[in-house]
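Hi Y.,

Following your request, here is the sequence exactly as I used it, all 413 residues.
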Amino acid sequence: MFRPLSLFIGLRYTRAKRRNHFISFISLVSMLGIIVGVTALITVISVMNGFDGELRTRILGAISHATVSGIGQSVQDWPHALDIAKSEKHVKGAAPYVENQAFLVGRQSSGAIVRGIMPKLEPHVSDFNTHMKAGSFDSLTDGSWHIALGDELAMQLGVTIGDKVTLYAPKFRATPIGGVPVLRRFTVTGIFALGMSEYDSGMALINMHDAERIFGVHGPTGIRLRLDDMFDAYPVAQHLADRLGQQYQVRTWMQSNANFFKAIEMEKKVMFLILSLIVAVAAFNLVSTLVMLVTDKQADIAILRTLGATPRTIMGVFMVQGMAVGLIGLGFGVLFGVLLAINLPAIVDWIQNVFHVQFLSPDVYYISNVPSQLNWSDVGWISGLAFVFCLLATIYPAWRASRTQPAEALRYE
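Below is the corresponding structure, written out as tokens. Let me know if you'd prefer a different format.
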């Protein structure tokens, strides 16, 4: 005989034609609920991963994985600190910079963060050079008094390539008539677009030595680092701080943007919890299905009991029955979820092109497309969670079936 018996009978009940079509309908609804829930959960988590990765990439294109700064206004003996940073195992690039706030005046005026950089070293730690909309990144040479603006900042100032911009530094110079602000005229030779409004509307780049002159500092205000793995920033920063000594301090991108990324992580967890509850509700629809099935199969259960089937065997029969429905729904849900998550950006682009709509306006949002990043670990967690929900949903009906008394069930047969 087929062993185990509970698996054989449970699968036979699954394949057999049911007399009660309402039970079949409820089973189908339960299965569809699990499919929709698992598909939605995989897709939404993949989209959240995509947004998280896209924001990290764009933000870290402007800031650094770690920053070495001095205790005072500038970094002392910065070439020595730069050499030590470059010698660190996980550091892929290092570049000094000078950064300060300033007031820019073109046809209109606006405040901005002005960062002085070294064009030859900056591409090792940022992506400004690969996001130039117009002009040249390499034009920011020493003594040229050239400036590169974010595209939104250039629009606010009403300037373009070749126009003049006056930079007012936050310091005053003593003269016979009193203190006057330090200012300098720059020529716009570059316009960049990182895709992050915070930087595109509020940042300007000049040569580091020009920045030292206009801001009155001697040496860079910090050294920006890019690592081979940004998630190793904290241990690398700790080790580098020990090597550099107490006259330097090392901060990581996690410290600078902790609240922002914690908010994204919290949103992802909340969405996971909400959608998990939907999957749980769909899975526990199996309870009503199996309860009605147990009621419908009272005579069969009683006959099996009189033939020697134990309560444990009866319980296994209906757990197999419920798990068969759950696993079919889970399998199709994972399949549809993976396919949708992988192809979602192309599907969204097709809908936008066909119906001439824009889901994420670039004028409002940092990201104008819908990114999706499928992580198989998330698929594993979701599948395991849905499996547990389905398993729990079968326990009570199966236990109720195992408590059937043959004499009572066959009294009116």
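Residues 90 and 227 are 6 Å apart (CA to CA).

Thanks again,
Q.
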